[in-house]
Amino acid sequence: LLTSLSALGIGPGDEVILPPYTFVATVNVVLLLHALPVFVDTDPETFQIDARQIEAAISERSAAIMPVHLGGSVADLDAILPVAVKHRLPVVEDACQSHLAEWRNRRVGTFGATGCYSFQASKNLNSGEGGAILTDNEELVERCFTFHNNSRRRKGAAQGLSYSMPGANLRLTEFQAALLMAQMTRLEEQSRVRERNAQYLTSMLREIPGVLPARMYEGCTRNAYHLYMFRFKKEYFSGLSRATFLKAMAAEGVPAQGGYSPLNKEPFIKDTLHSRGYSAIYSKERITRWEERNQCPQNEKLCEEAVWFTQTMFLGTRRDMEQIAEAVRKIQVHAQDLARL
């Protein structure tokens, strides 16, 4: 993500549009370039950026749109791409959680100016750390390579030191590449197992009142299920708190997580925007306007209701999926007693 934005020339004074329901890396790369992150609220039914609100967030300072294909599903590209074309803004697809996911039978990461994948340890395809960038723009290929290769160009590297832009050492090692190549042989098979199990679990959880599995957009023809996400409505569980629900799930042998906190409300972002470096670039009035615009009420509610299962759980059996659903049902039956504890 950092390499992509740098290759696109994103920097001080620019604004980058992104969702507030994502891993911190998505906003970190914007802040590292001294640009302003502009958060667009979340569609709570899908957990993805609400593409209907993107155009209203565009200003004369907008420089890129960075949708996240969260959890292995896909953001609404049918809505995002036309807005990007209309306003001549590059799209950087954060596909870090969506290996092999598809939008209308085409792999994600191939729609924007660049598509970014992560190989961090938790990912469906991983090498501990590392990542990859997809693009069909030869100029961006050169700029991305140069940035990640300590400012050294592909064609000039063999002849000695040849620099053309600021850069960093973000190179994947050959050892990590070997790990990835070995895993590629089973990625498709594992992805199919996740899909089958996730679909089976959804068929059961949909029958439980107060459990709302994340909906996919109609254009999402393949979900990678890096995360299985649903909303937990405590009013259907006798007012049981999500924290108690998660503890009860763990007691039943089913690990579950509460998901992200509202990224746009993280104190370090406000601290960064008031730092010496940012104060030298942005007026107090502009930062005040940013703070006034930084409202994502749907995302805040989602962060209180979200529950996740991680991708490794979906490499199991159909019986494993049944046990997950049975645990949820059992907790609902005994929710009133649990709420008293």
Which helices and strands occur, and which strands form pairs?
Elements (H helix, E strand, L loop, with lengths): L1 H6 L7 E4 L6 H8 L3 E4 L2 E2 L4 E2 L4 H4 L4 E4 L11 H10 L5 E3 L7 E2 L2 E2 L6 E5 L12 E4 L3 H11 L5 H4 L16 H32 L5 E3 L6 E3 L4 E6 L9 H10 L15 H7 L2 H4 L4 H10 L3 H9 E5 L7 H16 L1 H6 L1
Parallel strand pairs: 1-2, 1-5, 6-9
Antiparallel strand pairs: 3-4, 7-8, 7-12, 9-10, 11-13, 13-14
Helix pairs in contact: 7-13
Summarize the structure.
This protein is 40% helix and 14% strand. By secondary structure, the protein is an alpha/beta fold.
User: What do we call the CATH homologous superfamily of the domain at 2-177?
Assistant: Type I PLP-dependent aspartate aminotransferase-like (Major domain)
Helix/strand structural class: alpha/beta
Radius of gyration of CA atoms, rounded to a whole number: 21 Å
Distance between the termini: 45 Å
Largest sheet: 3 strands, parallel
> Averaged pLDDT, please?
96
Q: Which sequence of strands runs across the widest sheet?
A: 2-1-5
Strand content: 5-15%
CATH class category label of the domain at 2-177: Alpha Beta
Which architecture of the domain at 2-177 does the CATH hierarchy give at level 2?
3-Layer(aba) Sandwich
Uncertain residue segments:
none
Shape: globular
The succession of helices and strands, N to C, reads HEHEEEHEHEEEEEHHHEEEHHHHHEHH
Helix content: 40-55%
The helix count comes to: 14
Number of strands: 14
Tell me the CATH topology of the domain at 2-177.
Aspartate Aminotransferase, domain 2
